[in-house]
């Protein structure tokens, strides 16, 4: 089959963001399919294309994937209006591609929700099979976060969500809550498959050179957060824990934040103001370099704001990267990941917004290195047994191959 694949935030492993679509495209190629990836220019991402844009687009073949990159830059630090404009421009350009390119199946993945618009047109105007992947429930999540409050905008997004789900022949959800949310919108359960984010064991469990940023001793307990510094991540909870650790005199525990995002300057200013010298900020790095850092780290931090919609409605890349590296995970909100951590004894599940419990978990980790090592071994076993990217990407391709109008 020829797959027309829409992902606005696509990146190869050369970038510092998630690579799910790249890995899924590679599995499609290995199974004998052709893939055309349509994307924009994402801050922190790297499509692999370097030629100049001509008429607002450029194209080429990268690692076997035919890539069409639109000259539409996007960053998590952009304001709401700018982001909305970029989303709509990408959707409109994608519709034109969906109506003119030659392909057998169209596949689209969020975010944003507008990524599904070309699939709707392909289904109803060209009669093409359409598969839609839901990474976050929109508009439920932005509504719960208070990011979008305008009832007209929320109503339009809800209508688009319904139309996209009902236009798709098959759907994919990345977590139990996402699958449940799709079914709740009137979709038959046999049309929805759960394919969570996976573990890149070939990257994070590889033989790499371990390293630590300057100022972090090899004897320090190193806990890392690798991801976006945005509203959804609730990273003030990390600084609250850092302040508590400082009050307790635990200078041997260091908290490292790697990445970028709208709130990073604010977080850095707070850490400076409160003299939280146990918190270190680092620029984004690609996955290969991140693998070396994780090889030297002791704990991975899976943090989100305390919003009930997150409990079962997210499938964070960073969690799966951590367990791929054999890192115990400290998770600070309830839900399916917290339950998994407790069940498999591969980290710490602490209550939300509880700086004392957060700090105490890190102290337990620092004071019981043998126990921490056992948790890490359990994490790696979980990664290998249930979330190996190869296993999940094959499930993904199986689902696409069975799509029928």
Helix/strand/pairing category: alpha/beta
Total beta strand runs: 14
CATH class categorisation of the largest domain: Alpha Beta
Distance between the termini: 14 Å
Helical residue percent band: 40-55%
Count of discrete domains: 2
CATH H-level superfamily of the largest domain? Glycogen Phosphorylase B
Individual helix count: 16
Mean pLDDT: 94
Low-confidence stretches: none
Short structural description:
By secondary structure, this protein is an alpha/beta fold. It has helices at residues 20-30, 80-100, 117-126, 140-145, 151-167, 176-184, 201-204, 236-247, 264-273, 287-296, 308-313, 317-324, 336-344, 355-367, 369-386, 389-401, and strands spanning 2-6, 34-42, 57-62, 65-74, 105-109, 130-134, 170-173, 192-194, 221-226, 253-258, 279-282, 299-302, 329-331, 347-349.
Features:
alpha/beta; Rossmann fold; 2 domains; 6-stranded parallel sheet; 16 helices; globular
List the helices and strands and how they pair.
Layout: E1 2-6, H1 20-30, E2 34-42, E3 57-62, E4 65-74, H2 80-100, E5 105-109, H3 117-126, E6 130-134, H4 140-145, H5 151-167, E7 170-173, H6 176-184, E8 192-194, H7 201-204, E9 221-226, H8 236-247, E10 253-258, H9 264-273, E11 279-282, H10 287-296, E12 299-302, H11 308-313, H12 317-324, E13 329-331, H13 336-344, E14 347-349, H14 355-367, H15 369-386, H16 389-401
Parallel strand pairs: 1-2, 1-5, 2-4, 5-6, 6-7, 7-8, 9-10, 9-12, 10-11, 12-13, 13-14
Antiparallel strand pairs: 3-4
Helix pairs in contact: 1-16, 2-3, 3-5, 8-14, 12-15
């Amino acid at each position: 089959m020829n797959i027309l694949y829409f992902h606005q935030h696509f990146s190869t492993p050369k970038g510092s963001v998630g690579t799910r679509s790249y890995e899924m495209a590679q599995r499609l190629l290995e199974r004998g399919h052709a893939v055309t990836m349509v994307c924009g220019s994402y801050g922190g991402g790297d499509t692999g294309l370097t030629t100049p844009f001509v008429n607002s687009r450029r194209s080429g073949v990268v690692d076997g994937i035919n890539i069409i990159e639109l000259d539409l830059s996007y960053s998590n630090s952009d304001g709401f209006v700018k982001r909305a404009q970029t989303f709509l421009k990408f959707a409109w350009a994608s519709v034109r591609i969906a109506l003119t390119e030659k392909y057998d199946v169209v596949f689209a993945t969020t975010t944003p929700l507008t990524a599904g618009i070309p699939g709707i047109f392909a289904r109803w105007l060209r009669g093409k099979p359409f598969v839609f992947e839901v990474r976050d429930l929109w508009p439920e999540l932005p509504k719960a976060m208070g990011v979008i409050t305008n009832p007209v905008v929320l109503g339009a997004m809800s209508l688009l969500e319904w139309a996209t789900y009902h236009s798709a022949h098959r759907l994919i959800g990345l977590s139990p809550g996402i699958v449940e949310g799709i079914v709740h919108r009137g979709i038959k359960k046999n049309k929805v498959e759960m394919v969570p984010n996976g573990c890149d064991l070939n990257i994070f469990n590889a033989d790499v050179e371990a390293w630590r940023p300057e100022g972090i001793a090899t004897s320090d307990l190193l806990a890392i957060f690798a991801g976006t510094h945005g509203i959804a991540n609730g990273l003030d909870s990390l600084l609250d824990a850092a302040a508590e650790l400082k009050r307790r005199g635990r200078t041997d525990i260091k908290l490292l934040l790697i990445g970028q995002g709208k709130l990073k300057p604010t977080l850095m200013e707070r850490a400076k103001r409160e003299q939280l010298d146990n918190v270190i900020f680092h620029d984004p790095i690609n996955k290969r370099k991140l693998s070396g850092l994780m090889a030297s780290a002791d704990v991975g931090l899976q943090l989100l704001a305390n919003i009930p919609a997150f409990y079962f409605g997210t499938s964070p890349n960073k969690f799966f990267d951590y367990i791929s590296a054999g890192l115990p995970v400290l998770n600070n909100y309830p839900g399916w990941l917290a339950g998994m951590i407790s069940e498999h004894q591969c980290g710490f599940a602490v209550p939300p917004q509880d700086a004392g419990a957060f700090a105490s978990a890190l102290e337990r980790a620092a004071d019981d290195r043998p126990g921490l090592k056992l948790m890490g071994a359990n994490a790696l076993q979980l990664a290998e047994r249930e979330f190996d990217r190869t296993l999940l990407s094959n499930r993904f391709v199986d689902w696409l191959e069975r799509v029928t109008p």
